[in-house]
Amino acid sequence: MNKNNINNIAPIGIFDSGLGGLSICQEIVTLLPNESMIYLADSANTPYGEKSQQEIVSLSIKNTELLIALGCKIIIVACNTATTNAISNLREHYDIPFIGIEPATKPAALKTQTGKIGVLATKGTLKSDLFITTSNQFRGHLEIFEAEGFNLVRLIEKGDLKATVPLLKEYLAPMIDAGVDNIVLGCTHYPFLIPLIKELVPNNVAIIDSGKAVAKQTLNILRSEGLLNSSVSAVTRFFYTNGKQELLEAFLKKIELPSNSVSFKYF
Ligand code: DGL
Q1: 124, 117, 73: which is closest to 102 by C-alpha?
Q2: 81 and 39 in a common domain
Q3: End-to-end Cα spacing for the chain
Q4: Pocket of ligand 1 contains residue 210 by CB under 6 Å
Q5: Is beta strand 74-77 parallel, antiparallel or unpaired with respect to 98-99?
Q6: Contacting residues for 223 by C-beta, under 8 A, at least 6 apart
Q7: Known catalytic membership, residue 25
Q8: Range of 243's domain?
Q9: What is the pLDDT along the chain (267 residues), one digit of tens a residue?
Q10: Which of 16, 84, 132, 219 is the most exposed place for a label (fewest CB within 10 A)?
């Protein structure tokens, strides 16, 4: 892509395997309220976490190409599974800045008092080379308890958050019993479960996600690339889905995005 064609009023492109990346949109709107955005919810292909790396790469390429065709100036891969499996491939092939999201193992490692942390993430993330390499850096100093959040994404995509409770109990019990004091939410869908998770874990256990760090990194990269929107023109926020628009709308209400700036499209 020719960077000369990108201007700073162009939107930020964001994609996820579905609705999870909306938790990132929320942080972006808070930190970068003047930026327009285009969000792709690839709900028809959810969950990515149970697909092969090759499938995750090709879905990530499809999403990237659509966001580039729509004129985005930067792409946020708002999915841990797509980041850990595909971002190096995307960076190799497209000349547009990418921001990824990975489980916040490092912040948890720095914060823990018990030397024990938990990571709840998809199978695709936990099995990825990127996650294994990063978490191995800390394993000498602390114990990391991993849990695969099998079926959590499917239930969240149906809007059935309450149905996740028995699964959360099952997945979190071993790490709680082991004495973790920090639990990393390594999937952008999981922040929607924070109120339910808080009911299940002791008060001293911190729940950590990477949303704020991603927004901060986006700000830094836009600034360093000279791509921050300095104009006062109207902000637009388009939400594309290939799943159910009603569910997307319900989640958008939950995160309280200014609704007058929101439009929907099917892709
Ligand atoms: N939001 C995606 C993530 O952060 C969910 C992956 C999936 O679809 O399984 O990993």
Answers
A1: 124
A2: yes
A3: 22
A4: no
A5: parallel
A6: none
A7: no
A8: 3-101+212-265
A9: 445 457 899 999 999 999 999 999 999 999 999 999 999 999 999 999 999 999 999 999 999 999 999 999 999 999 999 999 999 999 999 999 999 999 999 999 999 999 999 999 999 999 999 999 999 999 988 999 999 999 999 999 999 999 999 999 999 999 999 999 999 999 999 999 999 999 999 999 999 999 999 999 999 999 999 999 988 777 889 999 999 888 888 888 888 776 555 676 777
A10: 132
Residue 154: name the closest of 3, 32, 43 by CA: 43
Please indicate whether residue 72 is annotated as part of the active site: no
Cα 87 from Cα 27, distance rounded (Å): 21
Mutate which of 15, 17, 164 for ligand 1 pocket (most atoms within 8 A of beta carbon): 17
CA dihedral angle for residue 37, residue 240, residue 264, residue 226, rounded to 10 degrees:
10
Q: Closest ligand 1 atom, CA of 46? A: 8
Q: How many contiguous H segments (helices) and E segments (strands) does the chain have?
A: 11, 10
The total number of structural domains in the chain stands at: 2
Residue 64 and residue 120 in one domain? no
